[in-house]
Design a protein that fits this description.
With about 775 residues, this protein is an alpha/beta fold. It is built from 24 helices and 12 strands. The chain folds into 2 domains: about 35-135 and about 145-335 and about 345-510, Amino acid/polyamine transporter I (Up-down Bundle), CATH 1.20.1740; about 525-640 and about 660-665 and about 705-780, no CATH class. The chain has helices at about 25-35, 40, 50, 65-85, 100-110, 125-130, 145-155, 160-190, 200-220, 235-255, 265-275, 275-285, 295-300, 305-330, 355-385, 410-425, 430-455, 460-485, 490-520, 525-530, 555-565, 620-635, 705-720, 740-755; strands spanning about 395, 405, 540-550, 570-580, 590-595, 605-610, 655-660, 665-670, 680-685, 695-700, 725-735, 770-780. It is found in: Membrane.
């Protein structure tokens, strides 16, 4: 079988650069983005006015309240989604990716801070590491600019690095909280249309069961993925936007054609002057009009800047403005509402089309909820890849559509929490208070991170960054304060969820960091390995021994621990480190860093497999093949020191080379005599024939190899045919004696519990148990 080399993101790089998309491609992506990005934002008219007038203010005959609310909605939609996200934040992409971790990874690369201290200079040579969009040219080396001053400040003070990480984790926790609350409020608000066909007493007993049934079905179907029904998402959202636009235009002309006057910011002043504290508290309901705005940035990786900008400015934004104006026009002529619960969206819908609109609204709410749930899966995957969340099972639901994943543990946890808040609150008011706080907190985090990106990555002045954070930060802080004041009325939910997830993330990250520091302090020197001689002082058996380690240099302690107790090892040793780098994707040809430990006759190699936070990890068989091919190409190309003295000392420990495609690995069950290599290529075949599987390397025709290279490749093939064994450390992490109470609780209780209940390393999930050997070690951190 010929092995086609390619990494997790290979399909991604086969498309043209996003900035060069044709208008036809941009319009197609804009159409598709309507179903993925804007489902949540487009369903906000279902509950904005209802939440705003729930308790804090009353709808009077002067219309000052409704006009003031409409003015706030219009300017909030204009300043936050349109000005902040569409025109500014979308430019801060990380090689096409967006979201909280995209901003954080940009800052990590430009300030050289990171999650674990395992960065290498070779990482900075990655093509995706260097790329920087949306900003000005980098200043000359050594120039004392604002960016260099901020960079030195971050690199010098570890407290600031921790605060930056903490800020990113807060935003992540709030996104997870939004994944619980948005499906609840969207579906519950959509089915609230049933209230108009029955009495208030009856609808309370109908809405909750119907909403819960829809939510259970939504989460139960997650493992099938959305690729089978995803093509329906865009038409559903477009139909919904068309409905609310037409209804809005009808209400404007039928009830109050002069409602456009409320778009003047003067009505915001009149509103606050009349309502005072009640008006300020009602801002917690008004901010719900921008729920889902963060999705424009978070889902940027699936589309392009231009497509998202086109979809929002030409379809979503005008549709929402018309919808809110239409509701305001209706309410401005209906001052006496039969009961408070009837001030929602459906009361402004003409009775003749109310039931069809109800059905479309439920479908749109499901689509919006689906996008939020998928986004929650995605950000947890990013956290896990960057050692900030316990390892979880990640299932890729589509082999064709990139980024569609399913995490069983998180899915059922979200469902339970979502049902709990739906049954517990039973009204959109408290659900809205909770959802609003989560939404505005994420936006505040984005604003803070963006101000640093403006200076560090775009090389703009500090004054511009301060203006950005003061202008948008003031708007969001106003809404945040209005949400926070409703702590006891539902806003405590996202805070409680964030605290829980923050504790989990911080405990896991702290334990992982301490474990890595222990590995660094207890690693074995290269001199110890060289002192063992070519046979390493032990019996060398057939096969490849793959030793998993977190170290990018040195010999892990588990190796010396193993050979001390069992003096036998494989003929080929590979120290494998799978590490995450602060980029979205690593190109397949840049995936592996390969080096040699000791002279050639030792047959000991180091291989570092680098993955971005959005990369898809291959299954074990494909990974094994890519790994062996990278080592074979390293041997063939003679990248290492010709004298074979690579990594003879700790100083030379980082002398590794990026190995791309070259040699192909073919494995087949046929008899060696029947196998023929492809035309235009040479073959090196193993002399071992009594095997179930025949292995051969196909090298380029132009390759000229000396006898030592051919002998080394021959030995690697024979070792591959004999089989591969995975040696992994089974660590028992304990706080060292003399540690404080808090550290003992964090390490001995918290981290130990998470480690025992999380998944193993991604590459080792499907490895047969017969090929795995665990070496137990006690880590006293």
């Amino acid at each position: 079988m010929d092995l086609e080399r390619g990494g997790a993101g290979a399909g991604r790089y086969s498309t043209p650069e996003k900035t060069k998309d044709s208008w036809r491609t941009a319009l197609t992506l804009a159409y598709q983005s309507l179903g993925v990005v804007y489902g949540d934002l487009s369903t906000s008219p279902l509950y904005v006015y209802k939440n705003t007038f729930a308790e804090d203010i009353e709808h009077s005959e002067t219309n000052e309240e409704i006009y003031g609310v409409l003015s706030f909605v219009f300017w909030t939609l204009t300043l936050v989604p349109l000005l902040k996200y569409v025109l500014i934040v979308l430019r801060a992409d990380d090689n096409g990716e967006g979201g909280t971790f995209a901003l954080y990874s940009l800052l990590c690369r430009h300030a050289r801070v990171g999650f674990l201290p395992n960065g290498q200079l070779a990482d900075e040579e990655l093509s995706t590491y260097k790329k920087m969009d949306g900003g000005g040219a980098a200043p000359p080396m050594g120039a004392d600019t604002a960016a260099s001053r901020v960079k030195r400040l971050l690199e010098k003070h570890h407290v600031l690095q921790r605060l930056l990480l903490l800020l990113a984790l807060i935003g992540t926790c709030m996104v997870i909280g939004d994944g619980v609350l948005t499906p609840a409020i969207s579906v519950f608000s959509a089915v609230s249309g049933l209230e108009l066909s029955m009495s208030e007493e009856q609808h309370k007993y109908v809405e909750v069961p119907v909403a819960c049934l829809i939510l259970v079905a939504l989460f139960a179907l997650q493992h099938y993925g959305t690729h089978r029904v995803g093509f329906l998402f865009a038409p559903i959202v477009i139909t919904w936007l068309l409905c609310i636009s037409v209804i809005g235009v009808y209400n404007i002309f039928h009830w109050n054609p002069h409602v456009y006057q409320a778009l003047s910011p003067y009505y915001m002043y009149k509103f606050l002057k009349k309502t005072q504290r009640g008006g300020w508290m009602s801002l917690g309901g008004i901010l719900l009009c921008i729920t889902g705005s963060e999705a424009m940035f978070a889902d940027l990786g699936h589309f392009s800047q231009l497509s998202i900008q086109i979809a929002f400015t030409s379809v979503v934004y005008p549709s929402l403005i018309l919808a809110y104006m239409g509701q305001a026009a209706y309410l401005s002529r209906h001052h006496i509402i039969e009961s408070d619960y009837r001030i929602g969206f459906y009361v402004s819908v003409p009775e003749q089309i109310r039931w069809p609109v109800l059905g479309i609204a439920i479908l749109a709410a499901v689509v919006g909820s689906q996008a939020v749930i998928t986004g929650t899966f995605s950000i947890i995957k990013q956290c896990s890849a960057l050692s900030c969340f316990p390892r979880v099972k990640i299932v890729h639901t589509s082999s064709k559509v990139h980024g569609q994943i399913y995490i069983p543990e998180i899915n059922w946890m979200l469902m339970i929490l979502c049902l709990a808040v739906t049954v517990g609150f039973r009204d959109t008011k408290r659900l809205g208070n909770a959802s609003g706080l989560a939404v505005i907190a994420v936006m505040l985090v984005t604003t803070c991170l963006m101000s640093l990106v403006i200076v560090l990555c775009w090389h703009r002045s500090i004054f511009l960054a301060v203006c950005f954070i003061l202008f948008f930060g003031a708007i969001e802080a106003l809404y945040f304060s209005a949400s926070l004041i409703k702590f006891l009325e539902g806003a405590w939910v996202p805070i409680a969820l964030s605290i829980i997830f923050m504790v989990i993330m911080c405990v896991w990250h702290y334990g992982t960091l301490k474990k890595y520091e222990f590995d660094i302090q207890n690693k074995v020197s290269i001199d110890w390995l060289l002192g063992l001689g070519p046979n390493l002082g032990i019996v060398r058996v057939r096969g490849i021994g793959l030793i998993h380690t977190e170290l990018v240099s040195g010999i892990p302690a588990i190796f010396s621990h193993f050979v001390t107790n069992l003096p036998a090892f494989h003929q080929v040793l590979v120290f494998l480190c799978i590490k995450s780098v602060p980029v979205a994707y690593v190109r397949p040809e840049e995936r592996f860093l390969v080096g040699r430990i000791g002279p050639k006759e030792y047959r000991v190699y180091r291989c570092i497999a680098r993955y971005g936070y959005h990369d898809v990890h291959k299954d074990d068989l494909e990974f094994e093949k890519d790994l062996v091919c990278s080592i074979a190409e390293f041997i063939r190309s003679g990248i290492s020191d010709p004298s074979g003295t690579a990594e003879r000392s700790e100083k030379d420990d980082n002398r590794m080379a990026v190995v791309g495609a070259g040699i192909r690995l073919c494995e087949e069950d046929a008899d060696p005599e029947d196998a023929a290599g492809p035309s235009g290529s040479k073959e090196i075949q193993s002399t071992v024939t009594a095997r179930k599987k025949k292995v051969r390397f196909v090298v380029p025709e132009s390759s000229d190899m000396d006898s030592s290279v051919r002998e080394e490749l021959q030995e690697l093939m024979e070792a591959r045919e004999a089989g591969m064994a995975f040696i992994m450390g089974h660590s028992d992490v304990r706080a060292k004696s003399g540690s404080g109470l808090i550290k003992r609780l964090v390490i001995d209780v918290g981290y130990d519990f998470l480690r025992r209940n999380c998944r193993g390393p991604t590459f080792a999930v499907s490895i047969p148990h017969a090929s795995t050997l665990e070496v137990g070690m006690v880590y006293n951190v």
